[in-house]
Amino acid sequence: MTRLVTRRAVLAGVGVASLAGCLGGRRSGGSTDADERSPTGSSEDETEPSEGSSAGRSGPPTRDDRLPLPMEPSALRDEAVSGGPPKDGIPAIEEPKFVSVESASANLDPGDPVFGVATGAERKAYPQSILVAHEICNDVVDGTPVSVTYCPLTGTAMGFERGETTFGVSGRLVNNNLIMYDRGTETWWPQVLSTAIPGPWNEEPEIRSLREFRVVWTTWERWTNAYPDTRVLSRDTGFAKNYSRDPYGSYNPRAGYYAPNARPMFPALSEDDRLEPKRVVIGARAPDGAVAFGKDRLREAKLLRGELGGTPVVAAYEPTLDTGYVFRNPDEEAFEYRGGRVVDSAGDTHDPDALPLDRVLAFDAMWFAWSGFYPETTLYA
Predict the structure, then answer these.
(1) Counting Cβ atoms within 10 Å, is residue 122 exposed (0-12), middle (13-18) or buried (19+)?
(2) How is 104-155 classified by DSSP, letter by letter?
(3) What is the SS3 assignment for 98?
(4) DSSP3 helix / strand / coil % (the chain, rounded to 5)
(5) Cα–Cα dist 200/376, whole Å
């Protein structure tokens, strides 16, 4: 199914910003890498599989269990729409370079958002201003091949193990969310769902979920205060891009497409009005359900209790990076928040990301996207 609406057309209609130099890209000094070839975007039938057969190639590593889907995988494919640029029209970063904090500071204000990864001995920051033009960075962190991904239309930054393959941008969206594809099997992977669905280049993929890791949405100032020796994704990506202009709006201050009451760009899977469409929640999901905590509410309360799939959970606010973590709390253990740390009933103190409970991966998302993908989610806001 192809709907004749594109990011370019919608952005032009609402006057958010010019897209010139934003979507698609040209490698510096080289031939055109990808262009917006059609004002209506390419349809599935028009887009060719990558050169060479995917037979015998391996896909990304997957987890043993499967994350929930809001409908049958084939139905999700039917909901996919063209975002405008064709397959790889938004080019992933394939050979990322990193620079020091001192070098990156010239291009970042203290309140600018960055996506932080702290794994093993490595600390890396991926500026939102760069990833908004690429959406995927195929990287290696602490010796593990990974992809750090960002969907500007749903406000989601997520990390995945990729094994021997890499991820690319399919050019399609579902519920406004980036549909990635892996270059090993050509399978479609909606970012938030992190689970395979059928697509035009792989009609019958095994429906499995990716291995994820936490990517923290924070600000440049907060991340560098916490990790002053972090490495930072360089603007030297190999593409001629204007990384000083966000085609969708601004997060510093928050405006344009990112404003809490702004409408989604494409039809959403639900119109749950319990929160404004772009209000940020910290969501966690597991095979047995989903839960969302309003980020503003968690920032105020510091600790919030809720339920995920019938199991009590607790969310803890982490003030250094302005983020939150979610833990299963089946025995409903009591905790208190004191001076940025969490105190258990025995009087022991813990960092907010390290309570003595089973932590569930959680991440920031715009409410309309979360509620569309997880319509049965519990909400605490």
Answers:
(1) middle
(2) HGGG--TT-EEEEEEETTEEEEEEHHHHTTTSEEEEEETTEEEEEEEETTTT
(3) strand
(4) 10, 35, 50
(5) 29
Question: Per the structure block, which two tokens stand in for 115?
Answer: 């996506």
Nearest to 64 by CA among 287, 335, 293: 287
pLDDT of 71 reads 98
Per-residue CA distances from 123 to 225, 226, 257, 324 (Å)? 12, 10, 30, 19
Residue located via tokens 């479609």: 188
**pTM of the predicted structure, to 2 decimals:** 0.89
pLDDT digits (tens, 9 = 90+) for 147-187: 999 999 999 999 999 999 999 999 999 999 999 999 999 99
d(CA 189, CA 343): 39
Q: Which residues pair with 282 in a beta bridge?
A: 293, 364
- Structure letter (DSSP) for residue 280: E
SS (H, E, C) 317-352: EECCCCEEEEEECCCCCCEEEECCEEEECCCCEECC
Q: What is the pLDDT of residues 367-377, one digit of tens each?
A: 999 999 999 99
Instruction: DSSP letter for 278, please.
Output: T
239: closest CA among 2, 16, 1, 21? 21
Rounded Cα distance, 173 and 228, in Å: 36
Which helix (H) or strand (E) element contains residue 222? Answer: helix 220-226
Q: Strand 335-338: give its sheet, edge to edge.
A: 335-338, 341-344, 349-350
